[in-house]
């Protein structure tokens, strides 16, 4: 793990150089994704026999966090890529898993996903031995920087949801370049129209003879990606605190009108107290997120047939707790650092606002009070979260 984290730190250092300017321009991050590819981070979870890193999710989560310290958008893109690259293992047959992992690992391919359950699902029609996807999604993270896109829709006349992996660059997929939010500006998360994208029936993930064989393991997609969220939230928070500390060391001036005048800001009791409080809370959040990462990595890499509803529930509750801690701590840091750095730190050139904007934007993905309720129902009633699109 250590070597991969160090490699991620080296990539993050390059991203940090112009992170403020890139955030301001909001351009499609082709070069940033190329940097991830060139440094082997895209194939970190890929099988070693195909040239991949052969690493575990525990390592992947830490790598996401390191990248997000420098650039929350690129941390999100990498985290989503890891989840969609693992999607075959979550739901596909053994043969499909082997084919997908060889394809993306040998090709160093980057994943995006048009899987937004709040929209009406894409419609799938049958045409002989093919499935044909049609519809529109208001969000599709990865967009134009992806090589492969995960589609999900409902087969017409049924309640059957079918996942498939398709090339992103084709006539039937139109990315609309309409992501214009206050944060996570480089995630290519705009809307997409799917028009007549054809997939062979044998590529329908997890279907054998046109029937799906469900496992509890299939439902790990939500806990896995919720912990992706928590890790890039945590990375954003770490980046915010590190950036603020560096600013205070170099620029913040002591306040000369408090009756307890100091020579340097680093001697001010309220600055020391403020940073001490934030650092302690951040360390606590890190510990909980790491605990959750160890727990889910253990079940993600275990035989799929062995996962029980109870084991899945224990992991889901822990991740719900980790996510809320990462959000609350990160938002507090993103706000409090301005009090500790001083008025001049609010200048646009320093870009301290991007940390709060990034975390605030994505943490609205699904309501945090529901995560608190999941933990409360477990603590008070011993209930596990019911697997849904968000739990």
From TrEMBL:
Q: Which InterPro entries match?
A: Acyl-CoA_DH_C, Acyl-CoA_Oxase/DH_mid-dom_sf, AcylCo_DH-like_C, AcylCoA_DH/ox_N, AcylCoA_DH/ox_N_sf, AcylCoA_DH/oxidase_NM_dom_sf
Keywords assigned: Flavoprotein, Monooxygenase, Oxidoreductase
All residue ranges annotated as the Acyl-CoA dehydrogenase/oxidase N-terminal domain in the record: 6-96
**Is this entry keyworded Oxidoreductase?**
yes
- Domain Acyl-CoA dehydrogenase C-terminal stretches: 227-365
SUPFAM superfamilies in the cross-refs: Acyl-CoA dehydrogenase C-terminal domain-like, Acyl-CoA dehydrogenase NM domain-like
The answer to whether keyword Ribonucleoprotein applies is: no
Q: In terms of domain of life, where is this protein from? A: Bacteria
GO molecular function ontology, one term from the record: monooxygenase activity
Q: Which GO terms describe its biological process?
A: L-leucine catabolic process
Pfam families reported for this sequence: Acyl-CoA_dh_2, Acyl-CoA_dh_N
The record's section on PANTHER family has: ACYL-COA DEHYDROGENASE, ISOVALERYL-COA DEHYDROGENASE, MITOCHONDRIAL-RELATED
What is the name of the protein in this document? Monooxygenase
Q: What organism, scientifically named, is this protein from?
A: Amycolatopsis rifamycinica
């Amino acid at each position: 793990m250590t070597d991969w984290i160090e490699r991620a730190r080296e990539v993050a250092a390059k991203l940090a150089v112009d992170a403020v300017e890139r955030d301001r321009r909001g351009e499609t991050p082709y070069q940033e994704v190329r940097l991830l590819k060139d440094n082997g981070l895209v194939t970190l979870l890929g099988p070693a026999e195909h040239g991949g890193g052969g690493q575990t999710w525990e390592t992947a989560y830490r790598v996401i966090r390191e990248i997000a310290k420098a650039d929350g958008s690129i941390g999100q893109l990498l985290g989503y890529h890891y989840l969609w690259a693992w999607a075959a293992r979550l739901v596909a047959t053994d043969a499909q898993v082997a084919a997908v992992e060889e394809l993306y690992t040998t090709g160093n391919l980057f994943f995006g996903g048009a899987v937004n359950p709040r929209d009406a699902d894409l419609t799938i029609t049958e045409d002989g031995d093919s499935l044909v996807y049609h519809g529109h999604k208001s969000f599709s993270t990865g967009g134009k920087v992806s090589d492969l896109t995960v589609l999900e829709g409902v087969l017409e006349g049924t309640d059957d949801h079918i996942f498939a992996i398709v090339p992103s660059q084709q006539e039937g997929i139109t990315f609309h370049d309409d992501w214009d939010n206050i944060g996570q500006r480089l995630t290519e998360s705009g809307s997409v129209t799917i028009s007549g994208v054809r997939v062979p029936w044998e590529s329908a993930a997890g279907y054998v003879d046109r029937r799906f064989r469900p496992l509890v393991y299939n439902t790990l997609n939500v806990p896995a990606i919720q912990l992706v969220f928590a890790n890039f939230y945590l990375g954003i928070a770490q980046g915010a605190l590190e950036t603020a500390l560096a600013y205070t060391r170099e620029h913040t001036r002591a306040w000369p009108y408090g009756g307890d005048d100091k020579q340097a800001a680093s001697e001010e009791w309220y600055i020391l107290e403020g940073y001490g409080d934030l650092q302690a809370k951040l360390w606590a959040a890190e510990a909980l997120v790491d605990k959750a990462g160890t727990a889910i990595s253990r079940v993600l890499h275990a035989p799929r047939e062995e996962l029980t509803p109870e084991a899945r529930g224990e992991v889901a509750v822990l991740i719900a707790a980790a996510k809320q801690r990462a959000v609350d701590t990160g938002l507090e840091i993103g706000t409090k650092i301005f009090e500790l750095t001083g008025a001049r730190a609010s200048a646009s050139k320093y870009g301290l606002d991007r940390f709060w904007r990034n975390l605030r934007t994505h943490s609205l993905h699904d309501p945090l009070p529901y995560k608190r309720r999941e933990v409360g129902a477990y603590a008070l009633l011993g209930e596990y979260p019911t697997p849904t699109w968000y739990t």
